[in-house]
Design goal:
This protein is an alpha/beta fold and about 325 residues long. It folds into two domains: about 120 residues, NAD(P)-binding Rossmann-like Domain (Rossmann fold), CATH 3.40.50; about 170 residues, Dihydrodipicolinate Reductase, domain 2 (2-Layer Sandwich), CATH 3.30.360. The protein is about 35% helix and about 25% strand. The protein has nine helices and 15 strands. Helix 3 runs parallel beside helix 4 and helix 4 runs antiparallel to helix 9. The structure holds nicotinamide-adenine-dinucleotide (NAD). The site of nicotinamide-adenine-dinucleotide has 19 residues, from helix 1.
Length: about 325
């Protein structure tokens, strides 16, 4: 049978990227909606054929417990609400897929992991690039030694943010570009390196006169040192557009641009003095469908998601270390997790 997803938060990402893709899934389907806006419940409820019994306001949220059609709750709310709504879903006996960033602190991530564990249910984080063909190929190439020994990873993510949105309001976002888009630079550096950083060193650049950045940071640039000696140089920005990474090793490099966009990934490699563009066949499932089906398959088979809560926690530990390094103006050594 196809497992039933309830979507919590009917904002842009949920309604434009996720809900349409659930129709293409092999192991999952949309069965319920949770929103604070009655008009959205009505509009998307009728569009997707969700009966009134399967439409919930936030006040009614805990009643998902009594709905056996809901197997998985997908939390697509502003960052500061991720922990609360994920934990309540676990307590209602549901599996949870939660958007990135997992939450806004290490303590919240730990509470989410504990709640899912106590309920005996799965917890996965929405790291969709781990289901994207070019990203998978890049990981494979690096692991197979195609670039030799990795020495430098550059990973840049940013966009020019428009004013007046929850992303710029710290109580809802938990932070600035780092929480929203910089996390792609961080997560990619880690999956490309295939090892965990031991030291970070960060610098923040925020024009405090810009009304957009009254409560959150604009830019953070940081470096990470890995046990092998490889370094990552990463960019997170709310005032310039970036979406690229490159892994340079002793024998060549592999690079993607755009790297983690919704679509349009392009890939180049260089070895033996020759640069080539790599074209990949169109996969049967795009990254959104791959992610949604992976969670359903993990529930069906009992396997752990490849991006479980622990993966979100690792990123959050590093985000806290990056902020600390920038604040204190010194490198921060990381304890082995
Ligand atoms: P959005 O603003 O479009 O949607 C957020 C939704 O939450 C809205 O429908 C809003 O009404 C609702 N909401 C509920 N309580 C709220 C409150 N107290 N304050 C403000 N809004 C409230 O945002 P989005 O772009 O859809 O982002 C939602 C989440 O999805 C974020 O965590 C974001 O990081 C994540 N996201 C992930 C990707 C990805 O590619 N994986 C892309 C975009 C967004």
């Amino acid at each position: 049978r196809k497992l039933g997803y309830a979507i919590v938060g009917l904002g842009s990402y949920a309604t434009r990227q996720i809900m349409p893709r659930l129709k293409e899934c092999e192991h999952a389907k949309l069965v319920a909606l949770v929103s604070g806006t009655p008009e959205k419940l009505e509009r998307f409820g009728s569009e997707y054929g969700i009966p009134k019994t399967h439409r919930y306001s936030y006040a009614e949220y805990d009643r998902i417990r009594d709905n056996p059609d809901i197997d998985i709750v997908y939390v697509v709310l502003p960052n500061a609400l991720h922990a609360e709504y994920s934990i309540r879903a676990s307590q209602a006996g549901k599996h949870v897929l939660c958007e990135k960033p997992m939450a806004v602190s290490v303590a919240e991530c730990q509470a989410m992991i504990a709640a899912a564990k106590k309920a005996g249910k799965k917890l996965m984080i929405g790291y969709r690039s781990r289901f994207q063909a070019h990203n998978l190929r890049a990981i494979e190439l690096v692991r197979s030694g195609f670039v030799g020994k990795p020495r430098l990873i550059t990973s840049e993510h940013g966009f020019t943010i428009s004013p007046n949105q929850w992303r710029l309001d710290r109580p809802l976002s938990g932070g600035g570009s780092m929480m929203d888009i910089g996390i792609y630079s961080l997560n990619a550096a880690r999956y490309l390196a295939g090892e965990e950083p031991i030291e970070v060193s960060a610098m923040e650049s925020t024009g405090k006169a810009d009304p957009r950045f009254r409560t959150v940071e604009d830019r953070i640039d940081w470096q990470m040192r890995f046990p092998s000696g490889a370094l990552a140089a990463c960019v997170s920005s709310y005032s310039s557009n970036h979406n690229a990474y490159r892994v340079t090793g002793t024998e060549g490099w592999v690079g993607l641009e755009p790297a983690t966009a919704y679509e349009g990934q392009q890939m180049w490699t260089r070895t033996k003095g020759k640069t080539e563009q790599v074209t990949l066949p169109v996969p049967a499932k795009n990254q959104f469908v791959g992610q949604l089906d992976h969670m359903a398959e993990c529930v069906l088979t009992g396997r752990e998601p490849i991006v479980a809560g622990e993966e979100g926690l690792r990123d959050m530990r590093l985000i806290e270390a990056i902020y600390r390094s920038a604040r204190e103006g010194r490198a921060v050594k990381l304890a082995k997790a």
